[in-house]
Amino acid sequence: MSSTFGTLFKTTTFGESHGSGVGAVIDGCPAGVKISLSEIQAQLERRRPGQSRLTTSRQEGDQVEILSGLENGLTLGTPITLLVRNLNQKPSDYRKMANTPRPSHADYTYREKYGITSQSGGGRASARETLARVAAGSVAEQFLSLAFGVEIVAWVSQVGSVEGVLSESELETLLRYDVDFSAVRCPDRQKANLMSAAIEKAAADKDSLGGVISCLCRRVPAGWGEPVFDKLDALLAQAMISIPAAKGFALGSGFAAATMTGSEHNDCFVGNGVKLGTKTNFSGGVQGGISNGQSITFAVAFKPVPTIGKAQKTADYEGHEIVLEAKGRHDPCVLPRAVPIVEAMAALTLADLALRQRRL
Ligand SMILES: Cc1cc2nc3c(=O)[nH]c(=O)nc-3n(C[C@H](O)[C@H](O)[C@H](O)COP(=O)(O)O)c2cc1C
What is the rounded CA–CA span in Å between residue 37 and residue 217? Predict the structure, then answer.
């Protein structure tokens, strides 16, 4: 029943959605890394509910406190404890649904597994747990940036059936600033408007929408990733699919590779005077489970949010058919808030592999 991710850069998250707080303990972050608290807070702000009309109206301050492992802005090499206290608990929103497992949420499976459930909300299955990942991920990202110059940018590339498109040159220079230009976090500005309208319509219909988040990690040195079971892409897939509501992972060309020929798909090498590069990047920067020095590119598919106000015929725990119209303040679409979570899980995966490579 572990809540720990990573081998050397090890992150454990703790806390229930409506308990006193949620946080993370990072064990294994190297000493002497300069950490900016405002960078951690900035990423938490991007995940926070209530940030725009496209997200749940729940207001959570999500102010991070660092309890250990940092002095004068530098890591000590000891466990780093990050804590966000819960200030907006409203268990009454969930009590009305206490006798009914929400369709496609984790209520039924948690009860089957543990025989006991958190008294309110989704407990550990609630997306509130992900703020701990975002805080820890920011520490990992700051380490990666200072030690290797790694840059991670994720964005919403699809909501429902609306797809955003970016050119090669837009991708090359894409920054978080461009992503955050629209509330939906899609840098294709025209499509961003269509996506926002689709989310607002779903909310008005008391329904929800899914979509896709794309991510690229620049300047990852060649050689990171273990050769067999802990391949870089395998660990990234695990990291991404562990995000609540994430249902699909595709590295580089992903499922499109299935319909291409070898001559179309091969990333032919070119010399750049120092090391080999590739002309194309269908491999998404990973070959044989090991980074090849190109940008790592991947996409994560998210399902539509399960808790919806629209009436649904389902059954309570006793098996009686009931009509459920969920109450509470839920997201009509997780995508805009999930962007920093994808970035955080990418950073935690890469930080761990960076340390594993150093130990060789
Ligand atoms: C940022 C974010 C916000 C979410 N908000 C909600 C929400 O308001 N209501 C809800 O039912 N599910 C929400 N979810 C999804 C549930 O947490 C998730 O569907 C549930 O834990 C079951 O896990 P699974 O979908 O991976 O099977 C959210 C997920 C994320 C990543």
Answer: 22
Best residue among 58, 97, 126 to mutate for probing ligand 1's pocket (most ligand atoms within 8 Å of CB) is 126
For the Cβ of 191 lying below 6 angstroms from any atom of ligand 1, the answer is: no
Provide the residue range defining the domain that includes 25.
4-358
The verdict on the CB of residue 337 being under 6 Å from ligand 1 is yes
Closest atom of ligand 1 to CA, residue 56: 8
From ligand 1's centre to the CA of 100, what distance in Å?
17
pLDDT-based confidence at residue 313 (cuts at 50, 70, 90): very high
Looking at every residue in the chain, the average pLDDT score rounds to: 93
Q: What is the CATH number of the domain that holds 23?
A: 3.60.150.10
How high is the pLDDT of residue 95? 61
Split into its structural domains, the chain has a count of 1
Residue 96 binned pLDDT confidence (cut-offs 50, 70, 90): low
Residue type, 134: V
